[in-house]
Amino acid sequence: PHQPAWWTSAVVYQIYPRSFADGNGDGIGDLRGILAHLDYLQDLGVDVIWLSPVHESPQRDNGYDISNYRRIDRLFGTEEDFDELLGQLHVRGMKLVMDLVVNHTSSEHPVFQEARKSRDNPYRDYFWWRDARPGFEPGEPGAEPNNWGSHFGGPAWTYEPETGQYYLHLFTPHQPDLNWENPAVRHAVYETMRWWLDRGVDGFRMDVINFISKDLTLPDGLVTPGSIWGDGSPHFTNGPRIHEFLQEMRREVFSGRDGDFLTVGETPGATVEQALLYTDPYRAELDMVFQFEHVSLDQVGGRKWDYRPLSLPDLKTSWNRWQRGLADRGWNSLYLSNHDQPRHLSRFGDDAGFRYESATLWATLLHLQRGTPYVYQGEEIGMTNAGFTSIDQYRDVESLNFYAESTAQGMPAVEALEALRAMSRDNPRTPMQWTAGPNAGFTEGQPWIDVSPNHADINAETDRSADKSVFRYYQDLIRLRHTQDVVVLGDFHLEAPEHPHLFAYRRHLDETAWLVLANVSGDVLDVPLGLASDGPLILGNYAEPGDPAELRPWEVRALDVS
Ligand code: TEU
Ligand code: CA
Fold first, then answer.
1. N- to C-terminal Cα distance for the chain?
2. Is any ligand 1 atom within 6 A of the Cβ of residue 149?
3. DSSP secondary structure code for residue 490 in this structure
């Protein structure tokens, strides 16, 4: 048996730079801001920082629209700031993983600017250009090459009258999709990746990487009632050449290179079976992927604005399937929050009366699974959703487009605002709450997005010195992953799958056996016979010892039952 990869016992922390800490008072988080908080990250104990994009960008989608892949946007700092950050992280034994956004570029990227000039421009074929639908006048409604809708509203095609064709963009019109069929595109990406590795970075988080191979016939998608656009996703998700492209990337970028790297693909719509193909080490594609199944369970038909309460048995079934499906080969990434998801404390917990208990409960359930946990900035101090009440407070392009489109189609504004309050991507993007002081200690200027008024109570300084500290609890969880082989390598057995409020599972490794018991509710819960255990408590979120046969509201216990 070979040595497990280094990242099996690592914990990753995601920084959304715009919202983490502002070093120069312009109201936008930046690299100097991050540099000022390295002690904090080291204290938390995380091994890896994943940095959302800091490359040059017109910031139409907060950096997920890159116009120069080798330069740091001045908004975030200088090249020297970046190298200092990388160096300082390495000095502290931490690694840095960059976001790699290569399904699309920014429309301001010089290559797209060339490509759009003429049909015979040498760069034309770097993107997806198509004629109008036969029988339609180019540019008129319905003339798009196919019926796909973009992820952020409107059609996935934009017409360019100068050359009489449309280009494809799965996201905003400012994010044209790259044509991975063109070998020159692929090799340019690989070269850029090698350039970053030469600079010293430790890996990549690959944005929507399972969208890069499209069905070349670009067929229409199914139109669900109530929608005007078709769902193109079956024709661009996990497409025909995806595994070939990823294997080529692995070879071209990583083969013969010494070091401990991490690759994690963002793969919306990937099933366990597909994830196994992506992450089986013998296939040499990716180390792990971010799957979306568990964050879609509270959405009707996968439509995010059409949300409903989470059914706990559904979540247990899903996580269990992923734990078992990637047990022998492949590897899971474990996350509940990121910059695109509402904060899980507000979404699945009780962010008022049982804020500490439910924050630590979800953290425990996640971190004690087999896989690599990801912590999104602020969850480690129990930050909540934004709680915005006016459309003027929103900044996210998806949220603003949703509001404009749905109200134009007759949805009452209050209803649209309610959906945004629950699901908007701005929920996790409010500034990191460092202190109870002005602007939560995030900036000395005017923040680009409102700071949550609850920062007076919820902030890193207060939390870290509180009796009930979410931060210290995360430290404990991270320490367990670093020190306990059963957490890293043990097998996983779900208990009581049908129970509506109890989340229970066992981990086993050789002679070691752990039992995790969680009461996902605000009421006292009777532990079913056979699961009640008075084995030594490894970690729990109540200070006073409890009755083995009962769990208190949002109580979680990890017990040694060896
Ligand atoms: O997200 C891709 C993605 O599919 C989503 O999580 C998306 O935000 C969601 O479907 C919206 O409802 C990635 C990035 O994480 C996101 O921030 C970018 O906006 C997007 O790609 C485009 O680069
Ligand atoms: Ca700044």
1. 24
2. no
3. -
Angle, CA 533 vertex, CA 527 and CA 537 arms, to 5°: 115
**Residues 510, 79: Cα–Cα separation, whole Å:** 49
Whether 330 maps to a domain, the answer reads: no
Calpha distance 148→167 (Å, rounded): 12
Q: Does a structural domain hold residue 333? A: no
Known catalytic membership, residue 266: yes
Q: Is the CB–ligand 1 distance for residue 151 below 6 Å? A: yes
What per-residue confidence (pLDDT) applies to 208? 98
- What digits encode the pLDDT tens for the residues 449-459? 999 999 999 99
* Strands lying side by side in the sheet with 288-290: 288-290, 262-266, 203-206, 95-100, 48-51, 12-15, 372-376, 333-334
Q: Which tens digit of pLDDT belongs to each residue from 150-208?
A: 999 999 999 999 999 999 999 999 999 999 999 999 999 999 999 999 999 999 999 99
Residue at 27: amino acid letter = G
DSSP structure class, residue 178: B
Q: Identify which of 531, 540, 501, 499 has the alpha carbon closest to the alpha carbon of residue 513.
A: 531
- Residue with CA at minimum distance from ligand 1 atom 4: 268
Ligand 1 centroid distance, CA of 319 (Å)? 22
Atom of ligand 1 nearest to the CA of 304: 12
Q: What is the mean pLDDT of residues 4-29?
A: 98
Residue 472 located in a structural domain: no
Domain assignment present for 386: no
How far, in Å, is the centroid of ligand 1 from the Cα of 272?
Answer: 20
User: Which atom of ligand 1 approaches the CA of 65 most closely?
Assistant: 23
Phi, psi of 9 (to 5 degrees): -115, 20
C-beta 214 within 6 A of ligand 1 = no
Whether complex ipTM tops 0.95: yes
- What is the total count of domains within the chain? 2
pLDDT in tens, 521-562: 999 999 999 999 999 999 999 999 999 999 999 999 999 999
Active site residue 207: yes
Domain CATH for 112? 3.90.400.10
Q: Of the candidates 161, 177, 193, which is a domain's last residue?
A: 177
CATH number reported for the structural domain that contains residue 518 in this entry: 2.60.40.1180
Exposure pattern of 287-314 as b/e (b: 16+ CB <10 Å)?
A: bbbbbbbbbbbbbeeeebbebeebebee
Position in ligand 1 atom list of the atom nearest CA 341? 6
The identity of residue 463, as a single letter, is D
Residue 287 in contact with ligand 1 by CB distance below 6 A: no
The dihedral of CA 134, 135, 140, 146: what is its sign?
negative
- The CA distance from 495 to 90, in Å, is 41
Domain that holds residue 520: 490-560
Helix (H, G, I), strand (E, B) or coil at 313: helix
Q: Is 208 in the pocket of ligand 1 (CB under 6 A)?
A: yes
pTM of the model: 0.98
Domain boundary among 151, 177, 203: 177
